[in-house]
Amino acid sequence: MRLLLLCGFTLLHTLAVRAGVCVRLVGVVQDFATHQPLSAKLSVRVGAGRMALGTSADGTGQFTVDVACTATALLIERTGYRPQRLPLNLTMFSAPAEVYVVIPLVAVDRQGTDRPYLQTEQKHYVQPAGGLSAGQVQHSTFAVADALAGAPLRAQVCFFFTKTGKKTCLDTDAAGLCTIDFTDKDIVAIEVQAAGYQAYQGNISVEQLGGPALRHEVRLLRELTILAVQSGPVGPGLLPQGELQREGTSTPQRLLAVAGRAGVFTANDLVPGRYELRLVDQASNVLQRRPISVVTGLNVQPVTMATRPVSVTAAPTAPLATPSAAPVLADNLPVVFFDEGSYALTGAARATLQQVGAYLLQHPDVHLRLVGHTDRLGDENLNKYLGEFRAKVVANCLHWQGVADDRLHIEGYGSRFLVGAQDNAESRGRNRRVTLKLIPAQPQTATVSNYK
């Protein structure tokens, strides 16, 4: 999709700066049962309305969307699947963040006989008459479970009989089970309710009487609960794995490692509650552990990894001096460059910032000044916002590595301090940058890193 260029950067990013982007969601939509990627519509709830964001890609299910701070929930919809809702919990983000998520969609139950299906799938159907033997019944057991976690649920199951107009309600036991005998062919409406879950409204066409006992699965959906774990840099050759163990249980759950994103893990089938988060090496040695609380919606956990000493250098010939009693701090830190009209970090920028973050974690008495710049194309007031926004994105990357916000000092100058000529693309590219400078510890009152 081609974006309209306005004032030196895309309209999309202009609006992002003005509206306040709290999070960039990067991920994939997939079928929960088969793990096949899906194309689905993405939108966000804003106040009483909604705002369309786009569609996940055909064939891959991948998406990248910027979410404004005013959004309260991500909505995911596809024909043939039950809609999903992810509360965003955006108050946890102090600066624009990039978070990887996997969105599972559960296929609807199609219309059939002698099994439940969603009322939305009801098609015109005439139940055939049949010779019924007196006393014949269909003995049915209904098993109610969490659609994603598979855990049995205590729920109320109500049956509405078309022929008699009667209503019968049953409660499931601790195993999520209840039983009923159907004594007549009928189309029976079913409503299943459990605390914290979407109500299930379905039908069952009772056709078979006098046969074997039947078992029916009813899967209830709650609002999505997703955990995204983003760890900082690790030692050479170390490939950590993420584990999560719920309080009161004995078996840990392995988190999904995100391909191509070292140290990033996710889970989307969690029940809200208290957990212990662990990062372990290939031999199951614990590298990091912490108690966490998982709430309904989006949960993000930055984890600072213990690392070997890492030097930050601008080039192999220019090592960074280690602070001493009279610290001499290097001025030749690498520059973080950006594509035209963009505030997204490149792979090279992320690699640079991993080194910078590791150094800052090893030297808590050192702060960092981040200054954002742009080329001179477009309106200077908007360029100043974009420069500051780029600096905040860089600061946020360091924040997720465990660097405290009060050690990051942000400034944005737009095109005020240009480097070189501005009559060619190469020169303009050198000006789309964030410069980094190590500085001695500053009073907390000087910190301006929080993004609101």
Automatic annotation (TrEMBL):
Predominant cellular place of this UniProt entry's protein: membrane
- Give the SUPFAM superfamilies listed for this entry: OmpA-like (SSF103088)
Pfam families per the UniProt record, alphabetical = OmpA
Task: Please name the PANTHER family in this protein's record.
Answer: LIPOPROTEIN YIAD-RELATED (PTHR30329:SF21), STATOR ELEMENT OF FLAGELLAR MOTOR COMPLEX (PTHR30329)
In Swiss-Prot or TrEMBL terms, this protein is called OmpA family protein
Q: Name one GO cellular component term.
A: cell outer membrane
Where in the sequence is the signal peptide annotated?
A: 1-19
Q: Which CDD domains does the record associate with it?
A: OmpA_C-like (cd07185)
**Could you name the domain of life of the organism this protein comes from?**
Bacteria
* Record InterPro entries: Bact_OuterMem_StrucFunc, OMP_bac, OmpA-like, OmpA-like_sf
Q: Which UniProt keywords apply?
A: Cell outer membrane, Membrane, Signal
